[in-house]
Amino acid sequence: MRINKLIIKNFGIYYGRNEFVFGNGADQRNIILIGGENGAGKTTFLSAIKLAVYGPLFLGYKSLNNKYLDYIKNKINIYALAEGNNHASIEIEFTIRNHGEEEHYKIVREWKLLSQTIKEYVRISKNNLILSNSEIEGFYNFLRRYLPPSLFDFFFFDGEKVQQYVLDAYFESNVKEAFMTLFNLDLFDILKDDLLKYLKQENVFSNLTEEQRQYTQIEHDLRHQKQVIQRLQQRIAELKEQLRDSQVRIQELELEFANRGGVIAHEREELNRKIFAMEQEKKLISEKIKETTASLLPFVISKKILQQTITQLENEDRVQRYKTLKEELGNEALPHVLGNLARKFSITDHQGKEATASFVEEVTNQLLHFLRPIGVDVDQFQIIHGMTREQKHAMSELFQSVQKFEGKQIDLYFSRMDQLTQDIYYAKKQIEHSLKDDTLKEIVTKLNEEHRLQEQLKYEIEGNEAKLTEARKFYNELMIQKEKTAKRVYQAKKDENIFNICQKLIKILSKYQEVQISKYLGTVETYFLQMFNSLMRKGQFLNSFKIDPYTFELTMLNHANSPVFKHSLSAGETQIFFLSLLWALLKASKQQIPLVLDTLFGRLDHAHKENLINKYLPVAGNQIIILSTNTEIDEYYYNQIKDYIQQEFLLDFNRETNRVEVSNRYFFQKVRN
Question: What are the structural domain ranges in the chain?
């Protein structure tokens, strides 16, 4: 993909019409240099490219929805709206090589705000011919295969964030996803999915054996569950990235507040500590209330039923003991003992006749009658619960807790919650009233917004991580079911049929995919070593670099064949590492994808900067977009790379006109003709 032109109109910080013409890539120069101070519109520039190409997919949505439209609504330039101009648009032209042929695309996304409602209008043309609705759908399907948003993001290099990105737990997964897409190896997974879908067709599925249907269903569920896990992992990574960004913004705002507030800043810090402690106490009380209402309150409400249950359990216990005694004593033991006693003491009746039998019977009946539970009709009584001793003990403890419950503790909890809420409110008001100027108030407002955002992000991360744990658990259960079902399938195997053919095809595809992965990984590993060692300073090189074909775990050995771990690399070395990996993936796959480099030189020393300029940038790709301030790529480094620059732009936000002024030059050059 090569971007040829971008036009931004009334979107974000860009007021009015702003045009960027990148050229057609006819010469060997490959750098698009975009300069600008912080806040001049560099980030919005990149967002505009992605939004124009992907639409709702830019935010992870498959189609238009309210969240996407709300995002657009908030991005329409406020100064344009103030003038009554409710139109915004982004237009992009780019070239994609498909099956060896260049295809030229133009996408125009236009938005109109009508009565607080956003309407989106999209026009897409290919080689100057407008696409129909069905052709547009086909184009989107092609784009999702050729260059999904995740792949576009992977080739966006941010020097300030690259270290945390490389050390992230999902880095290997991101590398694998990019690799599989670049080399079209995910096509095999699509084919395997298609085979499973074929088996799931009613006319085919109904002709399978019960074991084969179970196996097919489990395979289908496994693939679905794997997608669920991947989506959750991606969402968690996105949320954590947003959380890190929020933490950085809070640190910046805190520093600005301290610089402006002096003593007030110290007082505010103390108040914030108290607020935090009170909010933690509120959280703890809230958990206690939830625990009480969830575990005890339902039984308090149904105390009468609980009492009946306890009575029933006690009666069950008494009846069971009585029946056990009656069975064990009344049948043999008691008559035997009483008979021996009667004979020993010569028991006779009132007429003096021997009365052993009648004595035994009478004593047995009276003893059992004495032991018989009072108030219970033993003959008609039914055992309902049949609980174990531990269960009965638990019910007894629960009943005792319910009897002791008076509701006063809950009232105390709520009273304390109300008191804490008031104290927090007054503490925050105290912070606000202590501010002497509007600037400090604005900073505090922003800080409060960021703290609220952080809590929301943390809550969502916790929720998604809980879902991820459950999803992985379910996936593992499915794997166990699959293994068991597979054994039954092959035990019950009879004739060669469509199920067996599909299973063989899936095995063949999996095997071929494994072979291709190993083959292409070998090429990537070779290119990586070549670039990494050329960029590092003398004496700092790797002897081996391997990527596991299954887990994509990276293994590195230095010149002494000792392991080198990612976390042991410095910030600058991590940048070199990631840039080398990007180049290796692009070169091995022969794909043309714009490489976006933001804060490229931020963490590098002079020697590494020189190596990047001379050995990396000329060969990194057919189109490299570099975003920079004048302190990062200064006049010296500008002169070093100017022979590779195809086009350059300078973004300057004019606060008098509230417009981004775009000129065809960099900081140290005059406007080009």
Answer: 228-296+414-478, 301-404
